[in-house]
Amino acid sequence: MKKLSCLLLMLVCLVAMPLGAQTTNKVIKSWNLLTFSDETVKNLEADTEHWEYNSKGRYANTQPNDGEELKANGVVIKETAGLFIGAGMEAGTLLLRHAMGDNNGLQMQRNRPIRIDGLLAGQSVIIKMISSSKDSHGISEVSNLEGEVGESTYKAQNINTYSLRVVADGSISFTNSGGVVYKEISINEAVADERPQLPKVRISQVQEVDTVINGMDKTFKRISLACDDPQATIYFTTTSFGNIKDYQQVYKEAFLVERNCYLRAYATRGSQYRDSEILQEYIEVSLSFPSEGKPWVLDPEKLDRGAIATEISTDTYLISWRWLVDDPIDVCFNIYVDGEKLNPSPLRKTNVSYRKEGIEKIEIEAISDGQAFERSEAIFLKNAHLEIPLNRPASGSNESGDYEYIPGDCMAADVDGDGQYEIVMKWDPDNQQDNSIGGYTGNVLIDAYELDG
């Protein structure tokens, strides 16, 4: 009987949720903290015992909060109803920005948890926030939530969006790391998306176009896109990084591509249809030069990951690395500190700050299609710079007299092809002069230095 029950349960699950079923997010509850109603502002104005208006367009608390829902004039502030801010925020550290335009929001200048009750496992919590100063801040810790938080996620004065998942039914909380402004908080749940999905965009035609611009031969590719739904709108971008919707433009007619790039495109058609899958194609364009009259393929330097850990205080490091031109379009990264993985989920950026004393080893792992394909060890910059000893050329003499060499301009290049940059430096003689002036100078010399000298 137990086996039959298991079989029936499995069949019910298969019927209730077909394999590969599509889902979409439904907003259950949201807090838009960018605007406050006239009613709220009137109550704040009237409640001089608890709130004080300042010249910067903010209402600041005049007494420590009690950990309950925020009130003004004895009435729960409807914009923050359901948000329970940790008690004990001193006067002037809890502010409602209502007349600061795009800078509006709920400002907290002390680290306190915000609690939300009555959530269900599997729901998602989306938090949009920004640091209230030039320092990097964000969500430092959470309760009954999972997702990427902590120092590696902090940003300075850019919008920071956290997407967290409720672990179990009940209350959740999240705590800020410093002065922040909450812009929007929403609770979402995944629901079955029964809408038909649009067909995938395809490249219908690729034509090579040769032309001459400023006396130089140029080769372009003219790209035509199509979708089998004639009423769909196609969006595309040739920007390889970031979300396609951050860089998209409407496709109206065939367009020219003049450099190697990743083309991304998708189709959309109103709320009654699901967007198509995203087309991703690498477009390769050859280069040609008038001196040779034949095409040349762009061949960038084969650099390594260039991982560096810069000590910015006694216990804090800025960890940074390269996003290489030939990285896969879906590349993301993991960070390992002394063998322990730092980030809960792969990163789509190339720098984080991390606080810990006594670090011995930092490694960057590159991932594509869910598989690691490279692991690089970072070098440490203890004093936020690298000292490279110079080998000054010998002095010389000519018709203008004796001269010595002084360091001139520098540039970085991988001279020996080992994947690491060298410093190419020009040595100028101290009797240098403009070539419009007659006379003699010493020779200009070029040196290349490895980063270890």
Main features:
453 residues; Jelly Rolls; Immunoglobulin-like; 9-stranded antiparallel beta sheet; 4-stranded antiparallel beta sheet; 3 helices; globular
Short description, anyone?
With 453 residues, the chain is mainly beta. It has helices spanning 2-16, 38-46, 244-247; strands at 23-32, 51-54, 58-61, 71-72, 75-76, 84-85, 94-97, 105-108, 113-119, 124-131, 139-143, 145-146, 160-166, 170-176, 180-192, 202-213, 216-226, 233-237, 249-250, 255-257, 261-268, 279-283, 287-288, 295-296, 308-313, 316-320, 332-337, 340-341, 351-355, 362-368, 371-377, 379-381, 396-398, 401-403, 405-413, 422-429, 445-449.
Topology, please?
Blueprint lengths: L1 H15 L6 E10 L5 H9 L4 E4 L3 E4 L9 E2 L2 E2 L7 E2 L8 E4 L7 E4 L4 E7 L4 E8 L7 E5 L1 E2 L13 E7 L3 E7 L3 E13 L9 E12 L2 E11 L6 E5 L6 H4 L1 E2 L4 E3 L3 E8 L10 E5 L3 E2 L6 E2 L11 E6 L2 E5 L11 E6 L2 E2 L9 E5 L6 E7 L2 E7 L1 E3 L14 E3 L2 E3 L1 E9 L8 E8 L15 E5 L4
Parallel strand pairs: 25-32
Antiparallel strand pairs: 1-15, 2-3, 3-7, 4-5, 6-9, 7-8, 8-15, 9-14, 10-13, 10-15, 11-14, 12-13, 16-17, 17-20, 18-19, 18-21, 21-22, 23-24, 25-26, 26-29, 27-28, 27-30, 30-31, 33-34, 35-36, 36-37
Strand content: 35-45%
Helix content: under 10%
Could you tell me the radius of gyration in angstroms?
30 Å
- Helix count from the secondary structure assignment: 3
Quaternary organisation of the protein chains: single chain
What's the structural domain tally?
4
Taking the sheet with the most strands, its summary is: 9 strands, antiparallel
CATH hierarchy, class of the largest domain? Mainly Beta
CATH architecture of the largest domain: Sandwich
Using the alpha-carbon principal axes, give the shape: globular
Mean pLDDT: 88
Main structural class: mainly beta
Residue stretches low in confidence (pLDDT < 50, at least 5 long) are: 1-21
Number of strands: 37
Q: What is the straight-line distance between the termini?
A: 77 Å
